[in-house]
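Possible regression after last week's pipeline update?

I re-ran a chain I had predicted before the update to compare outputs. Posting the input and the new output here so someone can diff against the archived version. Not blocking, just want to make sure nothing changed silently.
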Amino acid sequence: MLIGFVILYLVVSIALGMYAATKVHNARDYITADRRLPFFVVVAMVFATWFGAETVLGIPATFLEEDLAGLVSDPFGASLCLILFGLFFARKLYRLNLLTIVDFYRQRFDRRVEVVTGIAITLSYLGWVSAQITALGLVFNVLSDGSITQVQGILIGASVVLMYTLFGGMWSVALTTSFQMIVIVIGLFYIAWLVAGLAGGVEPVLEHAMQQDKFHFWPGLNTVAIIAFISGLLTMGFGSIPQQDVFQRANSGKSEGVAVWGTVLGGVAYFLFAAVPIYLAYSAFLIDPTLVTSLLNEDAQKILPNLVLGHLPLFAQVVFFGALLAVIMSTASGTLLAPSVTLSENVLKGWLTQGNTSEAHLLKMTRWVVAGFALLVTVYALWALGNDTGIHQMVENAYKVTLVVAFVPLVAGLYWKRATTLGAYTAIILGLLTWLPLEFFLPEGEGMMPPQFAGFLMAIVGMLFGSLARRE
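New output (post-update):
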């Protein structure tokens, strides 16, 4: 019966996505929903897209294995990103009436900067989207009690998300995430109420966590620890600002005010609500310590799903897995569309259109890119599964390249009149030449600072040096 309800939920999501396809008449409809979305829908899209598999499965697992300091990148850095984008970037970018955020790099600098940043932003999504697809595989595996392998679950999940994203685009994301946000909020609060009853309330869970020093957050008073802490916060806090999914949600709002405050409120809601899955997973220490002990050694990401299956009634299981699927699919659809749009509009458009720049041709090309990127994401998810890469780690790694390549040119281009194209070139080159060798050849943990943070600092130096060396 539980699997039957899950299948019904998937069918409803696909139906909503297919209905959304009827609203798509051109590429602008597909990419920005023609900038007609109201405040609630923008808040829902920001919240539901970022409240993904890592929030429900990955973040709690990291908290159980480490402590609050392990979550500095997400949810702390992720929430910081959304709030900063809303306050300092949304209004300026909205006024430019762009189709993608990478269009800004072409307008402010040139085509070369557009292509490089477009490729970097597209690559950054591989880890994030793959994390969602991997989580779908894990859910199907747990629900079927192992009858569906995680590999088969990944293939099924990727097919479902592709189906409704491919045709409906941004309209599909808007309609499905509005529905899914309601499911997420109501579902997880209901589960938290039930779990609190089993654990003896909220206070015993918090007391147990405090006794285990789980709320340790601030770094030690030494240079390496402080730099690592700042890097973890800024990699996601800054690195996810030049992202198409964040821009796309703000840019789809029907006004500047909706773009700004919809993003800010979505970020605040994300930060506050991320505490719910952490509480649910940690309560397992009091409800079923044997389960926690066994799964901590196997896969901590399975603790929460197994807690629900083993201790809650059928209706609660239906609600939880419905909410979990809502979480994963809302994020997967949005993060599948964003890089595909970037790749088609800013990298491939000039090479593949062959002079045909009609809206119909661009829409067709974008849909082909969505399908191709979905295939690439599925392959990456299967590779990561074979290498035991956790969902939270996959998301954390996603923003290194955008921090190094795209963030500095975006900020300088918007806020520094003297920023030049040469400065953008120098920032990108110095950032990459610093980050890549350290990332791939320096043994982990042996550097004075994380490779992406070193690359970010050198990108700032490059922008200053290149822009001041010669005025264009």
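Follow-up from reviewer: compared with the archived run. DSSP finds 23 helices and no strands in the chain. Marking as no regression found.
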